[in-house]
Amino acid sequence: MKNEKITERDVDFAQWYTDVVTAAKLASYSNVKGCVVFEPNGYALWEEIQKLLDQRFKETGHRNVYMPMLIPENLMRKEGELVNGFAPEVAWVTQGGQKDLDERLCIRPTSETLFSDYYASKVRSYRDLPMKYNQWCSVLRWEKETRPFLRSREFLWQEGHTIHETKEEAEKETLDMLNLYNDFFHECLAIPAIIGKKTEKEKFAGAEYTYTVESLMYNGVALQSGTSHYFGQKFSKAYDIKFLSRENKEEYVYQTSWGVSNRMIGALIMVHGDDRGLVLPPKVAPIKVAIIPIGKDEEIINLAYSYKEKLDREGISCYVDDSEKSPGFKFAEAEVNGIPVRIEFGKRDIDDGVITLARRDTGEKVTIGKDSDIITSINGLMEDIQSNLYNKALERRDSMTYEAKSLEEMEKIINEHPGFVKAMWCGDPKCEERIKEIKGTKSRCIPFEEEKISDTCVCCGKEAKHLVIWGIQY
Questions:
Q1: Distance CA 6, CA 18 (A)
Q2: pTM of structure
Q3: Could you tell me if 442 and 202 are in contact, meaning their C-beta atoms sit under 8 angstroms apart?
Q4: 373 C-beta neighbours (distance < 10 Å), count
Q5: Integer Cα distance of 249 and 235 in angstroms
Q6: Rounded distance, CA 16 to CA 39, Å?
Q7: Are 194 and 468 spatial neighbours (Cβ–Cβ below 8 Å)?
Q8: For the chain, what are the domain ranges?
Q9: Which long-range contacts (CB under 8 A, 24 or more apart) does 429-435 make?
Q10: pLDDT for 22-55, tens place per residue?
Q11: Using CA atoms, how far apart are residues 284 and 268, in angstroms rounded to an integer?
Q12: What's the CA angle centered on 458, arms 453 and 460, to 5 degrees?
C-alpha cells in the first residue's frame, strides 16, 4: 500500500526523494541555509556505514586521526591547483571575537593541505613510511543548490591521506582503496557501482589522476559515489615532505587521498526506496527487525520480548513495538523506515502456533511455527533480501545503460530515457564541453574494462581513444 505522505516516485522523483527523507525522519531542514539536521534515523544510518567502513580501513592498516577544521590561507595557497579548484566553494573566517585576523582562515573543504603540512614535520626516513591515516569529520563547501545528503554546504565524510616511499606503492594504494569502496557498495549497500578513471577535465584538483565509483539512481541520474586520487609528488614538493631514502638521499614522498561521504545515504534512498518509503539492505540497516505484537495479551507480549532477547544475543538489532498505536500504523512506520524484516503475530496466530515474517523489499509474508529457530529464519531472510536488492538494482542499471554512436543518438537517449551512456571519445576536452551542452551530460569515467563500440568519437567523428561512460549527474 502506498504511503499517503509520499509522492509517487514515477510521478515526481525529486519530490518523492524529499518526502522519503522527511517521512523516514532521516533529516530536516535547518535555519542555517544550505545545511540540514541529521535526525536520529539518518545519523544511525551514517553510524552503521561508518562502523563497517572503519573496520575495513583498519584491517588494511589505516589509523584514524583528526585535523583542525581551520586552514591558514598561506597553507592553502602552497598547491595552486587545489586552491584554484576549490576557490568558488571556500568559506573564510576573517574575524576572531571583535578582532580582525592577521590572516584569513579557510573552513576546510578538504584536508590535503593540513595532512601535507603535518607529514612534512613528521617524516624523516624511509623507515617512517608508509603513513596511512584516515579522518572522519565534516567539511564545508559553499554550494549554490543543496539537497539533503546529496549536496549540502556542510556534510559528513571520511578522507584518507597516505604517503609512501615509492610511486608503485602509492599507485597500489590508490587502486586498493577504490576497490575497497567498490566492494563496500556491492556487498553492503547492494548498489552495483561502476569503477574507472576520470578524464583530465573531471579529475580532482591537484591530482595526477582520479579513480571514481559511479552509481546510477532509479531515475537514470548518475551519482559520483566515491573517489581515490593519486597525487604523485605534487603536494610533497609544494609542502616539502621529504625523507632520507635507502640510498641515503633526500627524496619526496608519493601521496594519495580518497573519500566517500553521506552521499551514500542519498544513494541508498534513490536506488532502493519505493512509494512506501525507505528500503534498507540488511547489512547497513541500523535496526534489522521490528517485532510487532498485535494486542496486549500477556502471552503475546512475553513472546515478543522472548524473540527480542534471542535476536539481541545474536547481535541482530531489533525493537518491540508494544505501543498504543494501531497495528496498521506500526506496520507502516516500520515500512517507511526501511526495516528489512517484521515479525507479526496476534492471539489467533499464537493459538494456531504460528507467527508471520514480512520482508520489506517485496512485501512478501511467510508463516513459520512460533517455536521455530527464529535466528535461522531471520538470517536466511536477510540474506535473501540483501541479494534481491542488489540483483534488482543491477537489472535496472543494466536496462538503463545504452550505447550511442552519434551525438544525435546520445541526445535522444539523454532527453527521452536517461541513464549511463556508453560512447567512444577522442580524448579532446572540447568534445567533452560540446557533450555537456546536452542537459549537462558529463563523462562519468573511463571504465577499466574498456570496450570498443565504434572507431570514431561520438562527438567529432575523429579516431576514438577510449570508451567513456557518460550521464547526467547529481
A1: 9
A2: 0.95
A3: yes
A4: 12
A5: 19
A6: 19
A7: no
A8: 13-272, 289-381, 401-471
A9: 429/199, 429/200, 429/201, 430/460, 431/457, 431/458, 431/459, 431/460, 432/199, 432/201, 432/202, 434/407, 434/459, 434/460, 435/407, 435/410, 435/459, 435/470
A10: 999 999 999 999 999 999 999 999 999 999 999 9
A11: 10
A12: 140
Stretch 277-295: mean pLDDT:
98
Whether the bond between 130 and the residue before it is cis, its omega within 30 degrees of 0, is yes
DSSP reduced 3-state for 58? helix
Beta bridge mates, 131: 163
- Contact predicate 421/403, CB 8 Å: yes
Q: Could you give the CA distance from residue 269 to residue 248 in angstroms, rounded to a whole number?
A: 54
Nearest to 115 by CA among 162, 62, 176, 165: 162
Residue with cell 559511479: 214
Phi, psi (degrees; rounded to nearest 5) at 193? -80, 165
Please state whether beta strands 254-261 and 222-232 pair in parallel, antiparallel, or not at all (unpaired).
antiparallel
Query: Which residue shows C-alpha cell 581551520?
Result: 70
CATH superfamily of 289-381: Anticodon-binding domain (3.40.50.800)
Categorize the per-residue pLDDT at 102 as very low, low, confident or very high, splitting at 50, 70 and 90. Answer: very high
The Cα–Cα gap between 242 and 254 comes to 10
> What cell numbers appear for 343 in the block?
515479525
CATH number for region 401-471: 3.30.110.30
Contact of 470 with 442, CB cutoff 8 Å:
yes
Q: 13-272 belongs to which homologous superfamily?
A: Bira Bifunctional Protein; Domain 2 (3.30.930.10)
* Listed residue (418, 462, 405, 412) closest to 444, CA to CA: 418
Is the bond preceding residue 88 a cis peptide, omega within 30 degrees?
no
Model pLDDT for residues 217-237, shown as the tens digit of each residue: 999 999 999 999 999 999 999
Give residue-wise pLDDT tens across range 297-320: 999 999 999 999 999 999 999 999
Which DSSP helix (H) or strand (E) runs through 381?
Answer: helix 374-399
Give the residue carrying C-alpha cell 523489499.
361
Give pLDDT, residue 261.
Answer: 98
Residue 149 · residue 262 · CB < 8 Å: yes
CA–CA gap between residue 86 and residue 206 (Å, rounded):
10
Sequence-ordered list of residues with C-beta below 8 angstroms from that of 303, at least 6 positions apart, any chain: 293, 345, 350, 370
Q: Which three cell numbers stand for residue 405?
A: 554512436
- Distance between CA atoms of residues 262 and 318, nearest Å: 24
CA 209 from centroid of its chain's CA atoms: 21
Q: Are 7 and 23 in contact (CB under 8 A)?
A: no
Write down how long the chain is.
474
Please count the helices (runs of H) and the strands (runs of E) in the chain: 14, 23
What is the C-alpha to C-alpha distance for residues 350 and 372, in angstroms, rounded to an integer? 13
